[in-house]
Amino acid sequence: MIQRIFTLSLITIKESINKKVIYLSIFFALIIILVSRIFTSITPGAEIAFMTDIGLVTISFFGGMIALFLASDFIPDEIRKRTIYTVLTYPVRRFEFILGKFLGISGVVLLSHSLMSLIFLAVLSLSGGAIKGDLMIALALIYGTLLIFSSIVIMGSTFLSPLINIVFSLFFYLLGHLVTYIRHLGERMEGAFIKFFLIFFSYIVPDLERFEVKDKLVVGSALPIGITGSCFLYAMVYIVCVMMLTYVAFNEREV
Questions:
Q1: Which run of H or of E encompasses 100?
Q2: Rounded Cα distance, 57 and 213, in Å
Q3: Which of 12, 90, 138, 201 is deepest in the core (most CB within 10 A)?
Q4: How far apart are CA 19 and CA 31, in angstroms?
């Protein structure tokens, strides 16, 4: 089983690397990171904070775009190429297929995230910025959000068309950054049903706010102790739940 999952993940990585969207996204991300160095002269005295802010936002945005465009066509592309019929004809279980694809896309996202991060850290270091542990934690947490986002996109690909899946996944991603607001809104509602629905819904969408540490870094605040472990534990539990739903949806689909 492990061998089959590993093989599927390697095939996914090879197929994904051949897609131009990865190179275009990384190219534009690197341009923005490098250009941010030019605009630091606009805000003298806040160069490093400005570069850190732009760098983290850029890596998060383009990492998300790579995950979105790779995973949104996950099942439809396999059906168009008819490779899914060949794969499932062999002794490959559907959950192995899903897990292998998820690990493959996660690996590609990790490669692109690492490349953008290395360029960002190099530019920051050459500009006089210190590479602190909190900054490395922030980069790791960005990858955690990308893993969660990738799992949601893969789930959507099992029952949605690529275009609708993109909208669906971006909607969930946006709501993931508004969890606190949704819960506060639910607590202020008078109707019992609406109150219950909003609070319940806030626990369904991914709580991406807990991964947001960019503002603390920019103002120089220390990150909470143990934030990396708690965030990745949350990510692991959430991804397992999403993968289970993905398996159920995929298992019900006739391919």
A1: helix 94-126
A2: 11
A3: 138
A4: 20
Residue 223 clears pLDDT 80, i.e. is over it: no
Supply 38's token pair: 């030019």
CB 78 within 8 A of CB 60: no
Any domain includes 204: no
pTM score:
0.86
Q: Cα torsion for 207, 213, 216, 221, to the nearest 10°?
A: 110
Closest CA to 185 of 170, 197, 169, 172: 197
Residues 132-184: pLDDT tens digits?
A: 778 888 899 999 999 999 999 998 888 888 888 889 899 989 888 888 888 88
From the number of C-beta atoms within 10 Å of its C-beta (0-12, 13-18, 19+), residue 85 rates as exposed
* Residue 13 belongs to a domain: yes
**Helical ranges in 127-191 per DSSP H:** 133-157, 162-176, 179-188
pLDDT digits (tens, 9 = 90+) for 195-216: 778 888 888 888 888 888 776 6
The answer for residues whose C-beta is within 8 angstroms of residue 255's C-beta and 6 or more apart is 75, 79, 84, 85, 88
Number of domains in the chain: 1
Return the half-sphere exposure (C-beta side, CA atoms, 13 A cut-off) of residue 179: 16
Domain of residue 219 covers 2-177+212-252
Does some domain include residue 235? yes
Tokens in use for 140? Answer: 């790791």
CA distances to 53, 86, 113, 182, 211 from 58, in Å: 9, 39, 10, 26, 16
